[in-house]
Design brief:
The chain is of the alpha/beta class and 211 residues long. Helix 3 runs parallel beside helix 4.
């Protein structure tokens, strides 16, 4: 099966590509550095030609409100249009856990980045292409950046919230009440939802895994 991974040279994308290739799939790692640009459309039609599945794990280069929204809307529209034209059968996207519940109003109630992710999800849901959206919690690799964003000299100020970080490539199998569960990486969950009938779940208060 031909699978195109948008953002296939990034943190999660490289691991998704490796996971899928190990399962014997024909995988295209698509990114601007590989001549595939979802913003300009460069190389997009050729990349998705003949693909059965497209996996989108690309991320906005900016977390500011307007640039993030422009990225996900422009990239999403271009990508989904190219998929429709090519007859792609399934679209898989990586998003953020809780995005669909952050519906408050007023200052600080919803970051511009989450609005952008919600816009991306809405484009996917109304595209007419069968889809899977994998909602992930924060990655361990970004913990340092989160801390630094709250730094003020020698002090670091962070919100008093619970967080369930996950690794990009780690799998541990365990059993609960007869069910075999896996505490897994995002890359594993994205890859797995393409190859079997599974339910991907994420609970910020417990575990991330698949049944």
């Amino acid at each position: 099966m031909k699978i195109v991974v948008i953002g296939g040279t990034g943190l999660i994308g490289t691991k998704v590509v490796n996971n899928l290739r190990q399962r014997g799939h024909e995988v295209v790692a698509a990114s601007p550095s590989k001549g595939v640009n979802t913003i300009t459309g460069e190389g997009l039609a050729e990349a998705v030609k003949g693909a059965q599945v497209v996996v989108d794990v690309a991320n906005s280069p900016s977390f500011e409100d307007k640039p993030a929204l422009e990225f996900f809307e422009t990239s999403g529209r271009n990508l989904l249009a190219a998929e429709k034209a090519a007859g792609v059968k399934h679209h898989v996207a990586l998003s953020v856990v809780g995005t669909d519940r952050l519906l408050g109003s007023g200052a600080g109630s919803l970051s511009g980045y989450f609005r952008a992710k919600m816009a991306q999800e809405n484009l996917i849901k109304t595209s007419g292409i069968p889809f899977t959206i994998v909602h992930a919690t924060q990655f361990f690799e970004f913990a340092n950046g989160i801390a630094q964003s709250g730094a003020d000299g020698s002090n670091i100020r962070l919100s008093p919230v619970l967080m369930q970080p996950i690794l990009p490539s780690f799998t541990h199998v365990y059993r609960v009440s007869g069910w075999q569960l896996r505490r897994v990486a995002v890359s594993f969950a994205v890859s797995k939802c393409l190859t079997s009938r599974v339910r991907v779940f994420m609970n910020p208060n417990t575990e991330f895994g698949i049944l």
